[in-house]
UniProtKB/TrEMBL annotation:
Statement: the UniProt record of this protein carries the keyword ATP-binding: yes
Pfam families: SelO
InterPro entries attached to this UniProt entry: SelO (IPR003846)
Keywords: ATP-binding, Magnesium, Manganese, Metal-binding, Nucleotide-binding, Nucleotidyltransferase, Transferase
Cofactor(s) this protein cannot do without: Mg(2+); Mn(2+)
Organism from which the protein derives: Candidatus Phycosocius bacilliformis
Residues reported to bind Mg(2+): 258, 267
Gene field: ydiU
Family: Belongs to the SELO family.
GO molecular function: AMPylase activity; ATP binding; magnesium ion binding; manganese ion binding
Name of the protein: Protein nucleotidyltransferase YdiU
């Protein structure tokens, strides 16, 4: 068995005690067929030398990895779901399989999805559909390619069961996914212990998060350190949501149990990417009020942070926590501006107002013209130097009108960032890598009908080419 020299198991969550998680066993699946493994991510934690059979043993049958010294743990948490508090939550179809250090010394979690029932499954079967697993691999990879904070889909294994789902043609195929991310501690983890009136466990959780994820706060004490932790989480959340907005990503279900303390996209469910600029675009068919629409994601992030702060009132100071949350709006505004300028491939410069006017004019034009979201950023990557390329492309007939001319005037003030990137073959293509819903359905159809994975593989190659062109490949968490 070939574990790399950088394989460093370090189970830490179990130290918090039995009130934070339940030991569980993985389901006994009838089949194990390896569909996907992220070798680059595996290399970062010393797992790349595993054979396919060994991989299936550990990430399909869940044989405990050497040195983990803990059983799989179904984590306990509560959460606001569409802003209604639910105290009956927890890992219902997944568990924390282990924790280990990467080659940069950062602690990472191995979390599962579809690994079987737990005490928190309620009426669920604890399973994941293969299509759901495919969608998570795609979404995480696309966000990685664009430099957005996200978990990584480390492994996808088909497990040979037939599942019944109301939102998919059934019976449908089953799978188990393993993700790699910095933390599975959710806002709802704090909410649970606040709800149970357990301030000592809140203190332990704060200490845990500071020690492992924000060690720069280690010298602080009392309410000051609680507020400082919330502020750091607010800043990380702002960066994550800003990345979504630039990527045109709509998470779909921004409940407090779906946001973690390190600000990483995870728990991919009904996500979608924008086809066109539309603030009201929703991903989930059951989001009837548009609570988690594209344009309301920044607001959702702030609301969830307020619930996190509220959960810590028992051990914190109200004024300090309020002040910590106030860091989010300006941090988000600045991060969104940086992310959008990066998506355009231009330098930020020093003129914040000029950037704001340019981006406002850009959104107005995009909304009016109905131009493809991904297509627009592909055409104009690099700024005005890409005008000839854009006006020779398939969307050229949309690039007209007074609002477009106004936008070009603003764009002229922003020089190209790393102009050598424009020579990448990716920008010689007329169309960008895209993951709008039609793309996802088009690659899923041959898998469902003929077990043909060629379009899936081709799409991943397109996404990786995008990441390489932008300078985010191999993707980093």
């Amino acid at each position: 068995m070939a574990f790399g020299t950088n394989y460093q198991p370090e189970p830490r969550f179990i130290e918090l005690g039995p009130e934070f998680a339940d030991p569980v066993e993985a389901a006994d699946f009838p089949q194990h067929r390896l569909i996907w493994r992220d070798q680059e991510a595996a290399r970062s934690v010393g797992l790349d030398g595993l054979s396919d059979g060994e991989w299936i043993d550990h990430f399909g049958r869940f044989v405990v990895l050497p040195g983990m010294n803990q059983p799989p743990l179904a984590m306990r948490y509560h959460g606001h779901q569409f802003r209604t508090y639910n105290p009956q939550l927890g890992d219902g179809r997944g568990f924390l399989f282990g924790q280990l250090r990467d080659d940069q010394g950062r602690l990472l979690d191995l979390g599962t999805k579809g690994s079987g029932q737990t005490p928190w499954s309620r009426q669920g079967d604890g399973r994941l559909t293969l299509k759901g697993g495919v969608r998570e691999v795609l979404a995480a990879r696309m966000l990685q390619a664009q430099g957005v904070r996200t978990s990584k889909a480390l492994s996808l294994i088909e497990t040979g069961e037939k599942l019944i789902r109301s939102d998919e043609p059934s019976p449908t195929r089953s799978a188990v996914l393993v993700r790699l991310q910095h933390s599975h501690v959710r806002f709802g983890t704090f909410q649970r212990h606040a709800f149970l009136d357990a301030p000592e466990r809140l203190e332990a959780l704060v200490d845990h998060c500071i020690s492992l994820y924000y060690p720069q706060l280690g010298g602080l004490e009392g309410p000051e350190r609680v507020a400082a932790l919330v502020r750091e989480i607010a800043l990380a959340t702002a960066e994550m949501v800003a990345g979504w907005m630039a990527a045109g990503f709509v998470h779909g279900v921004l409940n407090t149990d779906n946001m973690n303390v390190t600000g990483e996209s995870f728990d991919y469910g009904p996500w979608r990417f924008l086809p066109v600029a539309d603030a009201s675009f929703t991903a989930a068919y059951f989001d009837q009020t548009g609570l988690y629409a594209y344009g309301r994601q920044p607001e959702a992030g702030l609301w969830n942070l307020k619930q996190l702060a509220g959960a810590l009132l028992a051990i914190g100071d109200s004024d300090s926590l309020t002040e910590a949350i106030r860091a989010y709006p300006p941090a988000f505004a600045a991060a969104q501006q940086r992310a959008l300028l990066a998506r355009l491939g231009v330098q930020a410069g020093e003129e914040g107002e000029a950037a704001r006017h340019m981006l406002d004019a850009m959104f107005a034009f995009m909304a009016r013209s109905g131009v493809s979201w991904d297509g627009f950023f592909h055409d104009w990557f690099g700024g005005l130097v890409s005008q000839t390329r854009a006006l020779a492309g398939p969307r050229a007939d949309l690039y007209q009108g007074s609002d477009f001319t106004e936008w070009l005037g603003w764009l002229d003030r922003f020089p190209t960032d790393r102009p050598e990137r424009l020579s990448h073959p990716y920008f010689g293509q007329s169309d960008p890598a895209s993951l709008v819903i039609d793309d996802v359905e088009a690659l899923w159809a041959p898998i469902a009908e003929a077990d043909d994975w060629s379009l899936f593989s081709r799409k991943l190659a397109e996404i990786d080419q995008l990441g390489d062109a932008l300078g985010h490949c191999p993707p980093k968490a």
